[in-house]
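Notes taken during the Thursday session

The instructor put the following on the board and asked us to keep it in front of us for the whole hour. The protein is Endonuclease V. We were told not to look anything up and to reason only from what is written here. First, the residues (245 in total):
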Amino acid sequence: MQSLDSEQASLRQQVVEEDTEEWQRSLNFSGLERVGGVDLSFIKGDDVNACAQLVVLSYPDLEVLYEDSQMVTLTAPYIAGFLAFRETPCLLDALQRLEKSQPALLPQVVLVDGNGLFHYREFGLACHLGVLSGLPCVGVAKNLLQVQGVAKDNEHQSQIAALQKGGDSFPLTAASGKVLGKALRSSDSSSKPVYVSVGHKISLDTAVRLTHSCCRYRVPEPIRQVHKHTHTHTHKQTDAHIKSL
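Then, after some discussion, the predicted structure tokens were revealed:
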């Protein structure tokens, strides 16, 4: 546990919380052509075998260019606050497979189904994957992580109600005063926000703008597509497992 703590702290120091790419400085993200999405989904009732999934979409059209699904067996134990140590290797492998096989399709930024700096130790899955891959990463969570004084209380609900249209957001401020992320109303048709935080090599404002620009519905398209592909693949694997019994 202590070694994980020190390793996490060391990796945390490598996180870059500002824009590093030319396309990030453009209002319409000129120069951005490929956006990735990653997720790890478990078979129901099984917390060891999972489906690691990567999709790459064109930008701004958001059409699927590439998808990779792999059933994986997680060897690291689950430890609260250190989930990324368990999940990152499988997602990193997917990116590395793509880099070796079709480097021209490597995403220029990855949207991660999970949190980045909006985390117990300000180092969630999106940060971990970003630092180890070297790619800009954004954490996009569907549920609020109640951490560092951020709570799903009446004030939070009032702030959500005040989001008038897609693109509106408000900061998720820790008890220390530090802004850890933003709640974003991602679409006009959905009043339920997503929670965006910096993973690596991107500023929070740019992460929020990018996430909104990738939304046709509530969940940004790279993550929505990764869920569609993951669930299809996982169901096939589950059916094959049942037939083998």
